[in-house]
């Protein structure tokens, strides 16, 4: 069986001098994390950024639910989890020599991730995609990865996890 390989080296001629990179190259990768983000997801995002010489933006969104009792305590716990997740990725990125920026936002995760990606020249979004078989799929037909794809025109890579 014969295999072929090709390389994409094309540059948009209209974008020369405007900081644009070759097709298929990424200058800025966005990793969306929360307190439950799998280590594998972090490693994939850091590896992609390192392979492309890209900056890594790490974003955690604290969901705000008005129906929660003891709202302040819940939000504070979510903030602590988000900050721990951001710091964990920061350590992995620093060890790999990848420049990293950590951000914390409040709101609906998919919407905030989409807004951040569209407003900050992000070239690729990386999100976790937990296993959604059986009852999980029945009771929650959508997931963050598909919601983020709907919220932005930026390509989205979803990394399967076993959560």
TrEMBL record:
Q: Which segments constitute the UspA domain?
A: 26-159
Pfam families assigned:
Usp
Domain of life assignment: Archaea
The entry assigns this protein to a family as follows: Belongs to the universal stress protein A family.
Q: What is this protein called?
A: Universal stress protein
Originating species: Halobaculum magnesiiphilum
């Amino acid at each position: 069986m014969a295999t072929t390989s090709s390389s994409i080296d094309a540059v948009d001629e209209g974008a020369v001098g405007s900081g644009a990179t070759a097709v298929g190259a990424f200058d800025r990768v966005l990793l969306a994390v929360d307190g439950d983000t799998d280590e594998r997801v972090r490693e994939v995002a850091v590896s992609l950024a390192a392979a492309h010489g890209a900056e890594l933006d790490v974003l955690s969104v604290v969901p705000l639910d008005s129906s929660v009792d003891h709202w302040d305590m819940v939000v504070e716990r979510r903030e602590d989890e988000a900050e721990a997740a951001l710091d964990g990725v920061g350590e992995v990125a620093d060890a790999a020599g990848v420049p990293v920026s950590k951000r914390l936002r409040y709101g609906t995760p998919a919407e905030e991730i989409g807004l951040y990606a569209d407003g900050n020249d992000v070239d690729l979004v990386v999100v976790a995609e937990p296993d959604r078989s059986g009852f999980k799929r029945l009771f929650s037909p959508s997931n963050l990865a598909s919601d983020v794809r709907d919220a932005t025109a930026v390509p989205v890579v979803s990394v399967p996890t076993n959560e």
